[in-house]
Amino acid sequence: MNISFREKLKKIKLFKYVTVIGRTFSIKPNFGTRIKRLLFYFNDYRNYKNLETNPAYILNTADLFPRINDKTTSTDIDPVYYIQGVWCVRKIFENKPKRHYDIGSQAIMVGIISQFVPTTMIDIRPLSVSLPELSFVKGDITALPLKDESIESLSSICVIEHIGLGRYGDTLDQFGTEKSASELSRVLAKNGNLYISVPIDTENKIYFNAHRAFNRDYILELFKELKLVEEKYIYGKEVYNFYDKNKGFGTGLFHFKK
Description:
single chain; about 260 residues; alpha/beta; Rossmann fold; eight-stranded mixed β-sheet; two-stranded antiparallel ribbon; about 30% helix; globular
């Protein structure tokens, strides 16, 4: 198999370390783009001031509040978080649980769920904003403060791949994903529903300290005590019904039932 020059460079440790440092301190968009957008901002400001004055408002230089990166030709969103959030919310609404529990998922998604289903969120980091319909319990996914087979509806979206890598202040642990999967299976009630998403790839990998990635077989092995109800895969901005190793890196959405 032919290996590209880029792949050969990635295997050189010194080159990889230099690349990592460069990415960490790089500015996106680059400095030139920021200057260009700032000039457009001041041009808009000058042109706005030259329009007919609306006496209902005060326009002072002291109140300038530049937002120079929002003038785009399309709505810029993260396709993975958008698609997996919609998928998870739809699943929960379809099954209509009496209460839903979430472990560590994106707070915006959990907050939306709580407006339709009483919800408890468990995370190592407390929420900085409270909602009447959303309760919070501080807890570690590798040792959940929940009884065996006690939860009928449970989600953990893009979480277990991070556990043990220290990215979010969690304890370093090479078996963080395995412990997390075991705990999710333990607390799920009989006939209960579990919704998870994880990065998928051609093989199990660690992209330290961002996340791990898995092949399909390994995910099914992690949750072998549960029945697979549905699986979806996000490659790029498209959703597919089947895992395709040839497509490389993506995100897998899995609905399990006990």
